[in-house]
Design goal:
The protein has helices at residues 2-24, 44-57, 74-86, 99-111, 136-150, 171-187, 204-217, 229-241, 263-270, 284-295, 313-417, 426-433, 437-448, 452-470, 475-481, 487-498; strands at residues 33-39, 63-69, 91-95, 116-119, 130-134, 159-165, 193-199, 223-226, 246-247, 250-251, 256-257, 277-278, 303-306, 310-311. It is an alpha/beta fold. Bound molecules: beta-D-fructofuranose (FRU).
Amino acid sequence: MKNNIRFLVLYPLSILYFLLLVGCCQHKPNAIYRIGVSQCLDDAWRQKMNYEMERELLLHPDMTLSRRIAYGSNELQCEQIDSFIRERVDLLIVSPNEAEQVQPAVTRAYRAGIPVIVADRRVPGDEWTAFIGGDNYKVGRLMAQWVTEKLGTSKARPFVVLEVAGLPGSTPATLRHKGMMDGIEEAAPLAKIAIESVMGRWYQENAYEAVSAYLEDHPLPDVIVAHNDLMAIGAAEAVKKNERTMYNGRRKEVPIMGVDGIHPGLQAIVDGKIECSATYSSRGDMLIDAASRILHKEPYVRDTVLETALVDLTAAYPMLKQDEAITRDLETLHIVQTQAESKWKQQRFDRFVLILLMVFFFILFLITLGYIFIKQRKIQTKIKHDIIPQLENMQKAIQLSKKDEAFAERLRQVVDDYLTDPHLNVEFLGSKLQLSRTQLFRRVKAVAGKGPLDYIRERRLVCADELLRTTDMTIQQVTLELCFSSPSYFTKCYKEFFGHLPSAR
Ligand code: FRU
C-alpha cells in the first residue's frame, strides 16, 4: 500500500517538478531573421563596422548575422551575394566593392524580394531598400579646404597636390575626387594648383608602391591627399624613405591628409606621420537598427547620409583615447557575449539532461504502474481461484469436524451403554444411531479410524481392563460380563490391544 502511494503520488509529482523546472529554464529565443552581410574588404574600418553590428545585434535577439568578405574582388562578392539569395536570407546588407560591377548582384537580390541595405559605397539606380553611408562629396570638399589652406601665395611654380585615390570604380573614390576638385576650383584658379593622381585602391601597400614610383621621377609634391588613412600612412612611409625629402641636411616635411579618422589614422596623426584626417563613420549599429525596422515593418529612413568633419592634432589625441576606450568596451562586450553564449550552451545541455531524466522517470513510472497493475490482477485471480475456495473448504471442514465430534460422542455413549449387552453388534448400533449399515461403517471409520465391530471390541477391552484393575473379578467373569465368546478369545484380543496378557495385571 505504502509502495502504491509512492508510485502513484510521488512519481507524478517529481515529473511535474521536472516539467516546471524545464519550463522555467530561461533560454535564448530562437533567431527568426537571418541577415546576410557582404563586405568588400576586411580592414580596420570594416572590422569596426562589424563590431558595431555585433554589439547592436545584442539588442535584437531575433536576428542573426552571416558575414562574407570579398577581399576586394567584384566576382567573389557577386558570388557571395548570389549564395545569400539562394539561401533565402531575410535581409542583405552590402557594401559593394565597385559600384557598376556589383550592382547586378544587388539588383538580383532586390528583385528576389530580399530587402537590401547598401552600406557606405553606393550602387547606381534605385533598386535597394535603404542606404546608410558617409557624405563622400563633403569629404572631398574638406580635402579641398585643407589643400587651399596649405596653398602658398609666393610660389613661382604651381602648387602640387598628389592625390592617392581609392579604387576608381567605388563611389567614395569618385565622389571624394569630385568634391576635392570642385572645392579647389572654387577656392583657387586651377592654374595655380597642379593635381596629380596615383592609385592606391584603398590599400596601404598599394599606396606605398604608387607613391614610391611617383617619387622616382617627380619632385616632392607640396601636399598629399589620400582617400583613406591607410593609404595616407603608406604615402608617408614612401615619402620618408625617399632621399629627395632631405633638403640641405634637413628632412622636408610633406603634409599628408587621410580620411576615416579611426584608430590607425588617429595614431598616425598623434605620431606626426600624417597631418590630419576627415571622419568617415561606419555606424554598423545604424545598419542593424535599420534592418530591424525593415524586417518588423516599422518606419525607416531610406537614405541616410552621415556627417563628416576634419580631425587635426588637437582633436586626434582625445579621439584616439575615446576610440581605444570604445574598442575596449567592444572587446569586453564580446567577452560578455561569449560567456553568455557558453552559459546558454550549458543551460541547453542541462535542459537536455533534465528532459532525459524526465523521460526516464516517466518510463519508470509507466513500467511501475504496469507492474502494479499486473501484480494486482494476479493477486485478484489467486484470491478468486485459490484462496476463496480454500477458505470455503476450511469452513466446510470446520463445520464437518463439529458434526463428527458430536457423532463420535454419541457413538461412544451408545456403545458404552450396551457394552454388557450381547445384542450389541453392527445392526443394533445402526438402529440405535439411525444409520444404514454402509452409512454407519463410513461415519465410524471417519471418526474412529476403524470399523464399528473393531470399535465395539476396543471399548469392551478398555472396560474389561478397568474391571480387572478395580474389582476382584476373574478373567472368566469379565469374559462373560463383556460378552466375549471365550476366555481364550478375550485373552487373545486383550494381548493384541494392550500388548500384554490380562493375567499380567
Ligand atoms: C574601408 C574603406 C575606408 C574608406 C571606405 C570607402 O574598407 O577603404 O577606408 O573610407 O572604405 O568605402
